[in-house]
Amino acid sequence: MAQSEQTATIPASAILNSVNDLGRQLAQSAKTITETRDVEVEIGTAAKAEVWRSDKVVLYRYKATAERKLRTPLLLVFSLVGRYTILDLQEDRSMVRNLLKLGIDVFVLDWGSPSLADRYLSMDDYINDYLDGAIDAIREIDGVPSVNLLGVCEGGTFSLCYAALHREKVDNLILMVTPVDFHAKDPSEPLGHGLINLWSHNLEGRDIDEMMDVHGVLPGELMGSIFTSMNPVRNALKYNLDLLEVADDKKKFLNFLRMEKWIADRPHHPGEVAKQWIKDLYQDNKLIANELALDTHKVKLPNVTMPVLNIYARDDHIIPTAMTRGLGKHIGSKQYTELELPAGHMGILVSGKTQHILAKGLADWMFTQQANLSENSASQGDAD
Amino acid sequence: MDAKTAALLQKIVNPHEWLAVSGYADNAVRQFVEGPRYADIGQIEQKFAALVTAWNDLRMRSIEQSTYQLNAYAKAAQEFTSKLADAAKDKPIASRAQLVAMWVDIANKHLFEVNRMPEFLTSQRELLRASTAFKRAQKGLSDYYGELFGIPTRGEIDDLTKTVADLKRQFRAEQRRRKQSDAKSMNGENTHGAI
Fold first, then answer.
1. B161 touches chain A (CB under 8 A)
2. What are the residue boundaries of the structural domains of chain A, listed by start?
3. Could you report the predicted ipTM of this complex, rounded to two decimals?
4. CATH code for the structural domain at A40-383
5. Is the pTM for the entire model greater than 0.90?
6. Tens digit of pLDDT for each residue in A240-277?
7. Which residue out of B96, B156, B175 would a mutagenesis test of the A interface target, given it has the greatest number of A Cβ atoms within 10 Å?
8. Cα(A266)–Cα(A335) distance, integer angstroms
9. Residue A207 with chain B: CB contacts under 8 Å
């Protein structure tokens, strides 16, 4: 009886139309899937040239597409967890291309694909050696004393550490979806947010040491499965329902495949870095306490005195906003700005909604800093 | 009922026993692994047994995790069915997307709730430990055969990797020192102090 009442609420014609639509969609999807070739799925294709290299780490400079309007070049530093190619996923979803169009000279650091041979590389190697080497290379190539530094996620944490240790080489610091206070928690945050914190706090330091001892690296596949578990049902539906929604439209299908290509390219995390990242930061929250040591150097956040722009994603389930916001009170800079964007952790870079807000927001802020600097220099000159 | 039958019945109805991978053989293998070791016999057999035990532990922990998740899915399915019935009474679901979104919300909620349960967290930690122990047991066996066939073991390669990493670090530091020194010279600074 209950069954007949339920079906009676949906008219038979609607059911028939729906079945017909589904049939058409399935036929078109099958055609698109069989006709598409992997060579069509390209990511990170904005023109660029290698300008510096150290071991597996490569620095690229993007080819300008507009007249340069900002004196100071911008260096993009991505996380070790994924690849920098998401910064230029495709022509119409590319922070890099949008910045180039606005007259910014853009460099990007590619960490490469760490393997077991890199298991002993530490955060000190990545920050004080590779990142510093790349910044010196830009200073030399461009003849500038310092750069604008933009770090994303873990790359943001690395950039923050770098700015604290080498402030003379950083004009302006931009952080994007960057974990800073690893223990910060907002009681109102959704149930599915912050599961990496939960996972890391559930382990003891010795679990991490033993895991890295036997694996040598934090496997990319493990990180992948952790990210999948953060949105389990959506991910379980990805290759059936989601695919069905996009596969009847070639453009949408290629967008889907480009994201798949980026997700599949998930590098291993060098073991020593993973130990520091999980134990010193996630478990012991040393950065915010000014206790994080990179070799013999302690990272002191009050040394971050340059202007800072902190961009966070409103719906970030990987780095909840509480972890990234509130940096202002810990650093020495008096020019601290926060910018909230309506997206998730990586959606901030690839969502259609944020494409122009993000690059424009970044460029406007950097132009303002440049203007402030010129104004200060002029008034300094007048005073002299 | 005699004591043996009672014990058997207890085992049959104990869910923990259902998760055991090789049943009653597990304990015998474990006893062999954890038992005393002798200098000249059973070395390789013990390594194989250690691997089997570690594999069994890993499988058991993995099944345990899946069980928590299945329970969450079962609860989600129950709630979904009931909400679907309510929706049919009040306002029918208008599209497939709406139906999927409803399922995703409900199922995610139950899975996230499970993810935060202390029992689940304990099981998750034990799964990771079991995975590490399995990898270590694998390493024990591969090291044994590596030595037997004259192939470098993982430990030996790690030692070399560490040496190379340290040397490269020194090399990069030296390169940078030289570069800074050259830059100072080019700027006309006397890098040799007072001569």
1. yes
2. 40-383
3. 0.83
4. 3.40.50.1820
5. no
6. 788 888 888 889 999 999 999 999 999 999 999 999 99
7. B96
8. 35
9. 125, 128-129, 132
